[in-house]
Amino acid sequence: MDLQTVYFDHYRPAKAATRRESTVVGYDSAIRLHILPAIGERDITEISPKDVQAMVDAIERPGAALKALKTLRQVVRWWARREQLHMPDPTQFVELRPLEPYSPKTLDASETRRMLRGLFGHELEAVAICAVTLGLRRGEACGLRWEDIDLRSGEVRVVRSRQTVDGVTKDLAPKTARSRRTLVLPAFARKRLRALRKRVGYLCGDMRPDAVARALEAFCRRKGLPWVSMTNLRHTWATLAVEAGVGIETVALMLGHTELGTAYEHYIIPRLSICKAAQAAWEGQLMKAA
């Protein structure tokens, strides 16, 4: 059976029943852009490592090549298990160009304060406050409703992610089981949100998540305020937390990560200030023993 038929008639329907819609759309993107044009008409049992290597070599961006390879691997292995086929995995031993090192831009504490002060009174101020003080994903920040926030205790329940899938904006379940979590606002944020509080509805109103991100960025640029993407506001929270001495385990817990390594690998920016603080604490412990 050719790869295109395997994917659309079998693999995709099976995964659509168990995966988030946005995840399946991600599969579709890799399949349509890179995999089908290269090997879509080939019988899945006849695809060779040479075919797969040629496919990934033709993809300009290393990140897109990695995504295409992972998607193809999932489809091939799933089909082999389902049909109990004794076939070699053509995605093995394929070499990818190394990914370019990625160091997300983050705000320091002073820049974060300037940004929040500059957004005072903006219609999306509440979203920005929650995004940067809770380390939320963009979909989580845009999915917050006023009913999710207890302004007496400062507790915020993260129970949904607002996503736009195939042009339709909808509420989806959080990314993982641990992404469904309860966080606590810092005192200044709780106080400010009390002043902004509306009775019901999303903090961002009816705006789509991408429109929220564009509106905040445009305003900050126009006013000369520090700004990074909403994704990097999440990185900002994590890095500032570690700078303040918060343990990596707590950071991972609050970010809603399933594995500790995810926070370490992707969200903690190794600023010199973190290393200096660690050495100061180490030296203090040494001096106590003198």
Describe the structure.
The protein is mainly α. It folds into two domains: 3-83, Orthogonal Bundle (DNA polymerase, domain 1), CATH 1.10.150; 109-277, Orthogonal Bundle (hpI Integrase, Chain A). The protein is 56% helix and 7% strand. The chain has helices at 3-16, 21-39, 49-57, 62-83, 109-118, 125-134, 138-143, 187-196, 209-223, 230-243, 248-255, 260-266, 272-288; strands at residues 149-150, 155-158, 161-165, 168-172, 181-184. Helix 1 packs antiparallel against helix 2 (21-39), helix 2 crosses helix 3 (49-57) and helix 2 (21-39) packs across helix 4. The longest helix is centred in the N-terminal third of the chain and has 22 residues, at 62-83. The mean pLDDT is 88.
Chain-wise SSE layout:
Elements: H1 3-16, H2 21-39, H3 49-57, H4 62-83, H5 109-118, H6 125-134, H7 138-143, E1 149-150, E2 155-158, E3 161-165, E4 168-172, E5 181-184, H8 187-196, H9 209-223, H10 230-243, H11 248-255, H12 260-266, H13 272-288
Antiparallel strand pairs: 1-2, 2-5, 3-4
Summarize the structure.
The chain is built from 13 helices and 5 strands. With 290 residues, it is mainly α.
Summarize the main sheet.
3 strands, antiparallel
Strand order in the largest sheet: 1-2-5
CATH hierarchy: architecture of the largest domain: Orthogonal Bundle
User: What is the overall number of helices?
Assistant: 13
CATH domain topology of the largest domain: hpI Integrase, Chain A
Q: How would you state the average pLDDT, rounded?
A: 88
Rough shape? globular
What is the number of independent domains? 2
